[in-house]
Amino acid sequence: MLAALCDDDKFITEKLKNLLLTYAKENRIIIEIDEFQSGEGLLNSEIDYDIIVLDYQLGNTDGLTVAKELRKRNVLSCIIFLTSYPHFMIDAFEVNTFRFLLKPIDKSKLFKAIDDYVKIIDANYPITIIQNKELKKINSNEICFIEADGKYSNIHLSDKIMHCSKTLSGVTKLLPAYCFVKTHRSYVVNLHYVKSYSSDTVYLSNGEAAYLSKNYQKSFRTSYMNFLEKNYVRL
């Protein structure tokens, strides 16, 4: 994931960078970060960023003008505005602003914004694996579960199994932490595919099953309940 931080206050961009790096570490995702102190600098970049955290007031160039130009290049990027003046929020909606955060930066609100964005894009969260010395790309939402196979791993999709040269841990580090959870030392499941579970087994919607060991029962149940609470509506 590529992120751009744009604020004419170096202290703000440094704080944002540290917060994003903390988020990336806690959620097992990779975020590459570029910092800009002016709107002109950001506009001169040829990179299409996934996340853009942008100050609403940028010296000679206001953030809204910058956002309009960025939106012409990439309609899917997540634009998060920072400001000390909440009355600007209405104007910001014309560039399809994802979030509007007030200064000083609230860590929990920033993390919540990124959480929501990651959940939206997880269906298009690509990973590259090596199978039989060939590079292949799959999306994270295609994976039902991953099974350790010695120093390698088997990635179970809904309709096939792909043998991967990475370890179970190596593959897991590439995937969003909110929905990929360990159930056994040899199994990691995608919570989107969990159909039901018993004291020792997790049943998946593709018809397969993964072991649930005593050591991971509590952490799995907690993760699954939190996942359901955030992602599904109780009728």
From TrEMBL:
<dbReference type="InterPro" id="IPR001789">
    <property type="entry name" value="Sig_transdc_resp-reg_receiver"/>
</dbReference>
<dbReference type="InterPro" id="IPR007492">
    <property type="entry name" value="LytTR_DNA-bd_dom"/>
</dbReference>
<dbReference type="GO" id="GO:0003677">
    <property type="term" value="F:DNA binding"/>
</dbReference>
<dbReference type="Pfam" id="PF04397">
    <property type="entry name" value="LytTR"/>
</dbReference>
<dbReference type="InterPro" id="IPR046947">
    <property type="entry name" value="LytR-like"/>
</dbReference>
<dbReference type="GO" id="GO:0000156">
    <property type="term" value="F:phosphorelay response regulator activity"/>
</dbReference>
<keyword id="KW-0597">Phosphoprotein</keyword>
<feature type="modified residue" description="4-aspartylphosphate">
    <location>
        <position position="55"/>
    </location>
</feature>
<comment type="function">
    <text>May play the central regulatory role in sporulation. It may be an element of the effector pathway responsible for the activation of sporulation genes in response to nutritional stress. Spo0A may act in concert with spo0H (a sigma factor) to control the expression of some genes that are critical to the sporulation process.</text>
</comment>
<feature type="domain" description="Response regulatory">
    <location>
        <begin position="2"/>
        <end position="118"/>
    </location>
</feature>
<protein>
    <recommendedName>
        <fullName>Stage 0 sporulation protein A homolog</fullName>
    </recommendedName>
</protein>
<feature type="domain" description="HTH LytTR-type">
    <location>
        <begin position="127"/>
        <end position="226"/>
    </location>
</feature>
<dbReference type="InterPro" id="IPR011006">
    <property type="entry name" value="CheY-like_superfamily"/>
</dbReference>
<dbReference type="Pfam" id="PF00072">
    <property type="entry name" value="Response_reg"/>
</dbReference>
